[in-house]
Amino acid sequence: MLPILIIAVLLAVLFAAAFAVSLIKIRSLTNASEKLRNIDQMTGLYNRDGFITEASAVLKNVSAAGKNAAVVIFDVDGMGKINTLFGAEVGDSVVVGFAATAEALCKGRFLCGRVDTDDFAVLLTYNNENEINVFISDFEEGLHRYFGETAVMERVDYLAGVAVYDGCDDIYTLYNKANLCLLAKESKVTWFNSDMEQRMVENELLRTEMLDALEEGQFELYYQPKISFKTGAIMGVEALIRWHHPTKGFVPPNAFIPLAEQTGLITRIDEWGLRTACRQILKWQEQGLPPVKVSVNMSQAQFYRTDVVTTVTNVLEETGIDPALLEIEVTETMAMQDIQRTINVLGRIREMGVSISMDDFGSGYSSLSSLKTIPLDILKIDRSLVCDLDENEVSKQITGAIVDLGKAMKLMILAEGVETPEQSRYLTEIGCDLAQGYYYSKPRPADEITMLLLSPEMMQRANKK
Ligand code: C2E
Ligand code: CA
Ligand code: CA
């Protein structure tokens, strides 16, 4: 009896030990995969989630240790230009250079991470606030050492946002404050101040109001006609969002689109805009009107952070409209951020039969060699060039050159913001195809456009407004 008992006890101990070992293995595997999730693959630094998690733990101990803390976020200034001028590989090496500089400075002292494509955050602990300035100038020196006298060094610069820990903020608030400094772009190094806090509160309010607006149908699309210089006919319309706020009344797009971009809400707004515009195309079709092409503005966030190809496919399927009646407007600056993605995404959208126009052309920083690789149908000359055509000889020359360039690339050329008969005359002379502007018509609600499309005389009257 006794030996059986001993064997049973021994077996139980063995099983328990094996179970414990496998538990430890599972736990360490989970820990390892969690760690991996928190690491940025390209630089080996913490990613945003990793940085926030670690920083939260550091912050808890800071006050107890009688120290001060601050979050500094460094942003690679002009990353888009670097990618455009030198290619994405050089762009990546700049990111790696920033990461290496931050890591070398922080090693063993401070926490750092790559918190966005071209943003690096550091959680500094210090006794004297001046140590923050010293850290930032050391960072600048470090960048110079890393990039040396290379051609890329001439383009490499940074912006920094600094938020000092007030003893009660949580890490999210502190991090957002530093980020807000970067968005404010007040100077090369921007320190958080209470004005920004006020703006942050207002922005937060505006953000929730925009969410309500989406849910409660406060947004509306207006449409601005695009006129053929040759025939005077309406060749299409651009959909432009309008917000009827329940208490503030009319809120212009420039007062909320930039914030919607910053908060990421723009992707929902743009999807709503795309769907609404396509439904309107269908409505005009059902009313028996001649087919009218509608262009929709696409934000940088929607283009880079969402699967726009699928969204466009779905909306086209849902509404069943002819893809040839839809046009997508992307700005020059946005298209140049990542040429490869632009070529790929716009190519796929264009394959469906949708047209592509490049908005605000002439206001950004285009590389002509990149331009010819982008799938495009229309160039829209920026309003800033058109508005001083009457007085400014240089604007005239540039506009002429853009028209020639567009013709050489077999694109249609549209001039935005045409306000006077003189501008209209000059643009006709140089061979511009389409006009959009107050001289012809302001953006109007859909039913007014219906009237314009129904009667050519209305168009005549609209000309005079
Ligand atoms: P945009 O895409 O460059 O649109 C043209 C802007 O110029 C419109 O301003 C239009 O009303 C205005 N405009 C047209 N002709 C004239 C003119 O002759 N003179 C003057 N002074 N202005 C003229 P709006 O509607 O205020 O929109 C401003 C910007 O907001 C747009 O610039 C676009 O970037 C953005 N936006 C508007 N709707 C949407 C949208 O649904 N989605 C996105 N992502 N952005 C939008
Ligand atoms: Ca536009
Ligand atoms: Ca424009």
Labels describing this entry:
5-stranded mixed sheet; binds calcium ion; Alpha-Beta Plaits; 15 strands; 54% helix; TIM Barrel; binds ligand C2E; 2 domains; disordered C terminus
Question: Would you tell me the overall average pLDDT?
Answer: 89
Global morphology: globular
Provide the spatial order of strands within the biggest beta sheet.
Answer: 6-7-9-10-11-12-13-14
Main sheet summary: 8 strands, mixed, barrel
Which hetero compounds are present in the coordinates?
ligand C2E, calcium ion
Gyration radius from CA atoms, angstroms? 28 Å
Instruction: Please report the distance between the alpha carbons of the first and last residues.
Output: 109 Å
Low-confidence runs: 458-465
- Structural class designation: alpha/beta
CATH topology category name of the largest domain: TIM Barrel
DSSP summary, beta strand count = 15
CATH architecture of the largest domain: Alpha-Beta Barrel
Number of helices: 19
| Tally of distinct domains | 2
Q: In the CATH hierarchy, what is the class of the largest domain?
A: Alpha Beta
Query: How much of the polypeptide forms β-strand, as a percent range?
Result: 15-25%
Percent helix among the residues? 40-55%
State the CATH superfamily name of the largest domain: EAL domain
List the helices and strands and how they pair.
Blueprint: H1 2-37, H2 48-64, E1 68-77, H3 79-86, H4 88-106, E2 111-116, E3 119-126, H5 130-147, E4 157-164, H6 171-184, E5 189-191, H7 194-216, E6 219-228, E7 234-245, E8 249-251, H8 257-263, H9 266-286, E9 294-297, H10 300-305, H11 308-319, E10 326-331, H12 332-337, H13 339-351, E11 355-361, H14 368-371, E12 378-381, H15 383-386, H16 393-408, E13 412-415, H17 421-429, E14 434-435, E15 444-445, H18 446-454, H19 456-464
Parallel strand pairs: 4-5, 7-9, 9-10, 10-11, 11-12, 12-13, 13-14
Antiparallel strand pairs: 1-3, 1-4, 2-3, 6-7, 6-14, 6-15, 7-8
Helix pairs in contact: 3-4, 4-5, 9-11, 11-13, 18-19
Ligand C2E is lined by residues 224, 240-241, 252-254, 257, 266, 270, 273, 297, 299, 359-360, 383, 417, 419, 436-438, 443.
